[in-house]
Amino acid sequence: MPFAFQLNNNATGASLTNDGTMEIDFKNDNVATWTEMEQQIRSGLVRSIGLSNFNVKQVQKIYDSSKIKPAVLQVELHAHLQQNELLDACRRMNIAVTAYAPLGSPAAHNHFTGKYKVDMKVPSCLLTNHIVQEIAKKYNKTTGQILLRHLVEKNIIVIPKSTNTKRIEDNFKIFDFALEHDDIMKLNNLDKKEDGRIFDFRFFKGIEKHPEYPF
Ligand SMILES: NC(=O)c1ccc[n+]([C@@H]2O[C@H](COP(=O)([O-])OP(=O)(O)OC[C@H]3O[C@@H](n4cnc5c(N)ncnc54)[C@H](OP(=O)(O)O)[C@@H]3O)[C@@H](O)[C@H]2O)c1
């Protein structure tokens, strides 16, 4: 993450403010953190290191200042937030991209409004989107499989989460078909750019004032 939290020295997590939200560290230095992460590779403790939720400028800064380059960038990426600029930049830097929330995270809204008591916009549901439904019908696949295949065809790694055995199995069955060009274009046209973002992390109160807030 490009922003960090104050450590609670008596516990393993972040220290909390009076209202229960995490206390933000406004002075974290991402280049210094990356240098420490490189050290973990040199000492044989880890094999690969990467970034999450960094924007293009922030990725470029780490890339330019590092000896060991990021292997991967994990960001929110789905049909409503296709991140084309970030994808191009990562391709140029030879950094793999992992899409989190690749199905549009249908449970996120309830989870975060419940946990942090914040006002979050309700994203429109990709799994029941009528264009995705039409395409799913054509290929005899689920809407989830269409959404995942759309990303995998662009060489994006997907990490759909499910607690349901059948859906976990279904989410793997995306390598026995290919989307036709017209259908890829229809899915590409679902991009809402920044308006499609669900995870703006504003449930950490005041995070948007952090100098490294990425969005
Ligand atoms: N780096 C970060 O900052 C960050 C932020 C957010 C998330 N993530 C990671 O990304 C992963 C995925 O994100 P996410 O869980 O927010 O979003 P997601 O994978 O887009 O959506 C998961 C939700 O979709 C449902 N689902 C899964 N497969 C389905 C299918 N085939 N058909 C219909 N519904 C389906 C799941 O419900 P059921 O369990 O009932 O199937 C679950 O509620 C998480 O495991 C998390 O570790 C990373």
From TrEMBL:
**The organism's place on the tree of life at top rank:** Eukaryota
What Gene3D superfamilies does the annotation carry? NADP-dependent oxidoreductase domain
Q: Name one GO molecular function term.
A: oxidoreductase activity
Q: Where is the signal peptide?
A: none
Under PROSITE patterns, the record lists: ALDOKETO_REDUCTASE_2
Specify the NADP-dependent oxidoreductase domain's residue ranges. 25-191
Among InterPro entries, the record links this protein to: AKR (IPR020471), Aldo/ket_reductase_CS (IPR018170), NAD(P)_OxRdtase_dom_sf (IPR036812), NADP_OxRdtase_dom (IPR023210)
* Family matches, as Pfam families: Aldo_ket_red (PF00248)
Protein name per its UniProtKB record: NADP-dependent oxidoreductase domain-containing protein
